[in-house]
Amino acid sequence: MTIGGIRKYKELLRFFHRGRMAKSKFEYVKSFESEDKLLPNCWIVVRVDGKSFHKFSEKHEFEKPNDIRALHLMNRAAVKVMEHFKDIVISYGDSDEFSFILRKDTEIFNRRGFKIMTYINSLFSSSYVYCWKQHFDVKLKFPPFFDARIILYPTDENLRDYLSWRQVDCHINNLYNTTFWALVLKGGLTNQEAEKRLCGTVTADKNEILFSEFNINYNDEPEIFKKGTILLRKKIRSPNSDHFKKVIIPLHEDLISEKFWNIHSEILTIKSGQEYAYDSVEALPELVLSQLHLVKKDKCNDEIKST
Known about the structure:
- Helix 3 crosses helix 4 (113-130) and helix 5 (156-186) packs parallel to helix 7.
- The longest helix is centred in the middle third of the chain and has 31 residues, at 156-186.
- Strands 4-1-3-2-5-6 form a six-stranded antiparallel beta sheet, with helices on both faces.
- It has helices spanning 3-26, 53-59, 68-84, 113-130, 156-186, 191-198, 203-214, 223-227, 258-263, 266-269, 286-291, and strands at 43-50, 88-94, 97-102, 146-153, 229-237, 244-251.
- It is of the alpha+beta class.
- It starts with a helix and ends in a 16-residue tail after the last helix.
- The protein has three domains: 43-159, 2-Layer Sandwich (Alpha-Beta Plaits), CATH 3.30.70.3000; 165-225, no CATH class; 231-247 and 255-301, no CATH class.
């Protein structure tokens, strides 16, 4: 070996020596990280909730009391999350929130809670912005943001009670908002006057106000407003062939009843999605048609690839 070669060899050794020293000197900081591994054999629930969405909806001129465009956008973002994370067995959302339930035996990210929560929250938030133009003509004036929390439920009963709680909350809030905005937009009251009018009222009182003063039968309101959206994995027969395709179906049903869980028994038994029968292609929601590539392609139909 020449003198120049020996010199370069020694410099290379010093470089790797410094690298090892630097790594061993500073790597200790990793010991401050917490493992936060979630308990095994528990349903994992990640709930994403809009932050300051009252202001966000006002600035972007959401229709009151419900904006179907905003709800469809939330559903679209949730589907993107479910397409990426296959261990999500059911999702439920209404207004500005969505709950994602991962199977009890999932080993995704080695069940590290922070990792699961942040990945789902960031994908949902970015998908919401990514698909905004497909649902709203108004330009985004500032970015929306969502907080997230993670909860563990050890039993099937706990999980069902959690989802029932969220759907009951949807009904209570929607009935109040429907009555409140009827008083304001149709009854001419100010916000403060409407709040005072509804103070202390129960469900029957609000239904009476809607029907007697505004000829609104609350039972006739769209199911998506009253019950929220349930997203389930199903397989349907493709209209263009005899093959089955796995899709994510939006449902607006009563998930509190025993009937729902009997029909969709695969949720708790953690089995593959059952077949979903439909009368015609026209009867399928646009959210499903986009997954079957039967609607005009838009950028929200581009799959977010798994890494």
